[in-house]
Write a structure and sequence with these properties.
The complex is a heterodimer of chains A (111) and B (123). With 111 residues, chain A is an all-beta fold. Chain A is built from no helices and 11 strands. The termini of chain A are far apart. In chain A, 34% of the residues are buried. Chain B is built from no helices and 11 strands. In chain B, a hairpin with a 2-residue loop joins strand 7 and strand 8. The chains are: A mainly beta (111), B mainly beta (123).
Chain lengths: 111, 123
C-alpha cells in the first residue's frame, strides 16, 4: 500500500533556529514529490516539485531535497511568518493515477 | 494570473438542501480537482477532471456530483448531505494530469494550484 508520512507532527522553533521537516514515502510509480504550505483556513500554496533522487530546490529560507525514500524541507533562520502547516504530496502513476498528501507538519516560529 | 477562485467562501446548508460550489481558473490548465479537508487533516482527493472529462472518482458518495462545463470551470453539486460532510472543500488545477517519462519543460505540469476553499457546514 502506498504511504506518505511526515514528521514531526508539530514543531516549535525560536526565530532564527534552523531545522528540517521530513516526508518519507513507500510508493510505486513515483512521478513527482511536491511541497506545499498551508495557512489556517486557506488552500495549500505550492512551493516545490522534486522529480529525482539528489534533486534540490531553494526558495528564500526554504530548501527541499529528495532521496529514494524521503524528502526534507530545510528551513534556515525561520521567521514568525514561516509559521504554517507544511504538506508533502506524491504524484504516482502505475496504470492508475494517485495524488497522496502526507499528514503535514504544523510549524510555529516564535519571535 | 496564477489564481484559482472559489465561491462561496462559506456555506451553511440543511440536510435537505441542494447547493453548488463553484471553481474557476484562467491559467489554461487542463486538469481540475476537488478535495475535501477536515480540520488538522490533509486534503483528500474526491474527483479529477482531465480535458473536461471525469478521470477519477475516489469512491465519493453520490450526494456529491461534479460537473465541468468548460476547461476553466468546475462545479460540485451537493444534495442531501450529512453533518459529517462539513469540511473545507478545495478546488485545484494543474497543467496536466497523466504522463509518461517526465523530462525538460514538461516537468512542472503536475504541480497543483489551489483555491482558497469553501467552508461548508451541514446542519
Amino acid at each position: 500500500e502506498d504511504q506518505v508520512t511526515q514528521s514531526p507532527e508539530a514543531l516549535r522553533l525560536q526565530e532564527g533556529e534552523s531545522s528540517s521537516l521530513n516526508c518519507s514515502y513507500t510508493v510505486s510509480g513515483l512521478r513527482g514529490l511536491f511541497w506545499y504550505r498551508q495557512d489556517p483556513g486557506k488552500g495549500p500554496e505550492f512551493l516545490f516539485t522534486l522529480y529525482s533522487a539528489g534533486e534540490e530546490k531553494e526558495k528564500e529560507r526554504l530548501k527541499a531535497t529528495l532521496t529514494k525514500k524521503e524528502s526534507f524541507l530545510h528551513i534556515t533562520a525561520p521567521k514568525p511568518e514561516d509559521s504554517a502547516t507544511y504538506l508533502c504530496a506524491v504524484h504516482l502513476f502505475s496504470g492508475t493515477y494517485k495524488y497522496i498528501f502526507g499528514t503535514g507538519t504544523r510549524l510555529k516560529v516564535l519571535a | 494570473d496564477t489564481e484559482v477562485t472559489q465561491t462561496p467562501k462559506h456555506l451553511v446548508m440543511g440536510m435537505t438542501n441542494k447547493k453548488s460550489l463553484k471553481c474557476e481558473q484562467h491559467m489554461g490548465h487542463r486538469a481540475m480537482y476537488w478535495y475535501k479537508q477536515k480540520a488538522k487533516k490533509p486534503p483528500e482527493l474526491m474527483f479529477v477532471y482531465s480535458y473536461e472529462k471525469l478521470s477519477i472518482n475516489e469512491s465519493v458518495p453520490s450526494r456529491f456530483s461534479p460537473e465541468c462545463p468548460n476547461s476553466s470551470l468546475l462545479n460540485l453539486h451537493l444534495h442531501a448531505l450529512q453533518p459529517e460532510d462539513s469540511a473545507l472543500y478545495l478546488c485545484a488545477s494543474s497543467q496536466g494530469l497523466l504522463g509518461g517519462l517526465i523530462t525538460g519543460e514538461s516537468r512542472p505540469q503536475f504541480a497543483q494550484y489551489f483555491g482558497p476553499g469553501t467552508r461548508l457546514t451541514v446542519l
